[in-house]
Amino acid sequence: MANRKKILYIANTTPFANPIARENLDLMMMLASFEVDVSILFIDNGVLQLLNTDNEEIQARAFSPVLKSFEHYEINKLYALDSALAQFGIDAKQLIIETKIISESQVSELIHQFDYVFKG
């Protein structure tokens, strides 16, 4: 069996403005179902995807069920940028799934571990 390709998706979009954030998470699950090793780094507004929100109130598609289903797709390497969490006053205990918090200085090292990196 060939080595699995490793993809890092850098999530930087708010879950509220448009469907792109949700569509990209759906794409990651699809890739993982084809035995691609998927990891996700949440930065900037993307960290807001990690919060439990009242989707009816903001008329957005629910992210919580999608994020919680990651384990079924073996998407278990999730990272969040500490400065982005701080920018929004988010504590790690508020995140709806287990996420490793990393600093700006660790991002470059993380990125170099992957065959493909894309941002959306």
Fold and architecture overview:
This protein has 120 residues and is α/β, with parallel strands linked by helices. It has a single domain (6-119), classed as 3-Layer(aba) Sandwich (Hypothetical Protein Ychn, Chain: A). It is built from five helices and five strands. The protein has helices spanning 20-33, 55-58, 64-68, 82-87, 104-111, and strands at 6-11, 37-42, 77-81, 100-102, 116-119. Strands 4-3-2-1-5 form a five-stranded parallel sheet. α1 (20-33) links the parallel β1 and β2 (37-42). The longest helix is centred in the first third of the chain and has 14 residues, at 20-33. The N and C termini lie far apart (30 Å).
CATH fold category name: Hypothetical Protein Ychn, Chain: A
Q: State the distance separating the first and last CA atoms.
A: 30 Å
Side-by-side strand order of the widest sheet = 4-3-2-1-5
CATH class: Alpha Beta
Q: What number of structural domains do the residues give?
A: 1
Spans of at least 5 consecutive residues with low confidence: none
Number of helices: 5
Give the topology string: H per helix, E per strand.
EHEHHEHEHE
Q: What share of residues are in beta strands?
A: 15-25%
| Radius of gyration computed on alpha carbons | 14 Å
Structural class: alpha/beta
**What is the total tally of β strands?**
5
Topology, pairings included?
Elements (H helix, E strand, L loop, with lengths): L5 E6 L8 H14 L3 E6 L12 H4 L5 H5 L8 E5 H6 L12 E3 L1 H8 L4 E4 L1
Parallel strand pairs: 1-2, 1-5, 2-3, 3-4
